[in-house]
């Protein structure tokens, strides 16, 4: 699998060991920091179109299956663009989107895309049969009706969600008439056997927001979950033993936020971040774990594609 570093912020700039490893494997770096502020947190259609144009030219489908590191989880809404590229490169087969995240990212958002709304866009791509979201611990799944969740995704059987732990500690999470067991209630070993069987297609695209990881394994711009890096790798390995991975992306590395898209957009984004994100940056130890985690994921995806 090829690799690209998509620089939308400063998160990956100082990860020199990662850059060397990507370059040694024939990967490429793409500097789109001029688009980053307008894309960050949420973006309008014209900015997303500029992103799509650059992805098409700088990470061409001729590169084949590609692992893309994209910086902060504030940019998770670029995943539908990368997923569409991967589907085209693979010949547009039916695909399952395997989504590791501390948040379901299933809210509605008009006139653009939000890092918390992109799942609905991805789930409705013509090649996508199902989205399977794994590892959520946030309270976003508690009373989602009042939090803007697009529950049609559940009614139409487009999304399944396997939280690591339910917000109320229950053994399952129930939303819109659907009910799924938590990883904690099943046990990690049992979930490793269970997950591949839930994937209805031969081909899989993987997206990872590192806020799914516990604080000991990553430092992000968001509240974090309980999944260990070793368990994440074990899930990926087990899935790849049964399914073809046609591409992947990784977000979630902490970076200082720079908001743009116009004066009003910048102000609105700052206000939203104050409401939704932790006020303190992750500790130095957590931030220092980001590059080693990326290197482990890079090595893992290289092994899985051999």
Q: How would you summarize what this structure contains?
A:
With 306 residues, this protein is an alpha/beta fold.
Question: Any key phrases for this structure?
Answer:
single chain, 306 residues, alpha/beta, Arginase, Chain A, eight-stranded parallel beta sheet, two-stranded antiparallel sheet, 12 helices, globular
What can you tell me about this protein's structure?
This protein has one domain: Ureohydrolase domain (Arginase, Chain A), CATH 3.40.800.10. The protein starts with a strand and ends with a helix. It contains 12 helices and 12 strands. Helix 8 (188-198) packs parallel to helix 9 (229-240). The model has no long low-confidence stretch (mean pLDDT 95). It is an alpha/beta fold and 306 residues long.
List the SSEs and their pairings.
Layout: E1 2-7, H1 16-24, E2 28-31, H2 36-39, E3 42-43, H3 45-58, E4 66-69, H4 79-89, E5 95-100, E6 113-114, H5 118-123, E7 128-134, H6 152-155, E8 159-162, E9 172-175, E10 178-181, H7 183-186, H8 188-198, E11 203-209, H9 229-240, E12 244-251, H10 263-276, H11 284-288, H12 290-304
Parallel strand pairs: 1-2, 1-4, 4-12, 5-7, 5-11, 7-8, 11-12
Antiparallel strand pairs: 3-6, 9-10
